[in-house]
From TrEMBL, chains A, B:
Residues 42-61 bind DNA. Keywords: DNA-binding. The keyword DNA-binding applies. It comes from the Bacteria. Transmembrane segments: none annotated. This is Helix-turn-helix domain-containing protein. Residues 19-79 form the HTH tetR-type domain. Pfam families: TetR_N. It comes from Nocardiopsis tropica.
Length: 204, 204
């Protein structure tokens, strides 16, 4: 019996060697980004670093922007897992206010680590890819919907709180300011003022 | 008596014809931006549109990015005038909370009108030029300093509120979403949720 010409159902899982190849390429790209900055991550340089042919890099990512998007997808996926099924208050099970605070603290730490990547993926002609890849906006919309915020302000406030959280690291702080900031931890001043902001927006 | 080799004091005012030339170029660039979008604003196209030589455009702006920065400087200057010396509550004389609300409403209207320009000036490798050109961050820092916000959170909250205000139009909303929004006015939902946000952050 022949296989159907147009197979339905789930897409075929990635072959084991293709998946391994993908991980090797992503790790190489991540290392280059950390060591030399986004400008040095090119298709050619990545092929050389990972020890594969240029054709492999091209088939996998399509373009330089495709490298950054794949890296972002990969990192965002790990982050989302913690929010969707990790322990509370970042994961499910805590009150909306506590989840907003915990999400903000975790997200600030994430953006400190990934700021070069996040900025490299910014496209001045389209809204931030973060808006598509990141779960921040829908997550905030869901959490605010379980508070006393009036329905007519839910969309606006979710968007403005998303911006309040991600904007400083995506737009306003310079590389030098980010580098001067100590490793993000409980003492991080941005995380502390995020908590202050949420406590003021959702008192009681 | 000879003029000093290194003249002190105010820079010499722009010659009348140079100033006129500058205005003609800025108006032409603004019209091109509105009609065709940022991609079509190039050094050559601007020279042709304004009916001047390429050398004039080059001496004036230096580069394509220089055109956008000059346009932004010009628009921001007009906006700042209203905040610094216009009538309250946008101008001086009202309570900090009322000035924050009024500034946000005016700024959202400004960003709706200038969003193509603001995004064209975004540089993925540096913080937003808005952070240098715009007065939002220092203005918010000053206004919050006159409220009950604890001193240790002033810098963080000023940065996060700046992002909450400018981020949606600079980062998250697509061109299509901005185009769908009716002319900004008292009914603008983003401006209304900005007011809700400020009233929650500064109750009483």
């Amino acid at each position: 019996m022949n296989a159907p010409l147009v197979p339905f159902g789930k897409p075929r899982p990635e072959r084991a060697d293709a998946a391994r190849n993908r991980q090797i390429l992503l790790e190489a790209a991540r290392a280059m980004l950390a060591e030399h900055g986004a400008e040095k991550v090119t298709m050619d340089a990545l092929a050389e670093r990972a020890g594969v042919g240029k054709g492999t890099v091209f088939r996998r990512f399509g373009s330089r922007a495709g490298i950054f998007n794949a890296l972002l997808d990969d990192s965002e996926g790990r982050f989302q897992e913690q929010v969707l099924s990790g322990p509370p208050p970042l994961g499910p099970g805590a009150a909306p206010k506590q989840r907003l605070i915990a999400y903000g603290r975790a997200r600030i730490a994430y953006l400190f680590v990934h700021h070069a990547l996040v900025r490299a993926a910014l496209d001045r002609n389209r809204p931030a890819p973060m808006g598509e890849v990141s779960m921040t906006l829908p997550h905030f919309r869901m959490l605010l919907g379980r508070t006393d915020v009036p329905r007519r302000h839910l969309d606006g406030l979710a968007l403005q709180l998303t911006s309040a959280l991600e904007g400083p690291l995506m737009l306003y702080l310079s590389r030098e300011e980010i580098a001067r900031t100590p490793e993000p931890d409980a003492e991080d001043p941005l995380a502390d003022s995020w908590q202050e902001l949420v406590e003021r927006v959702l008192p009681g």
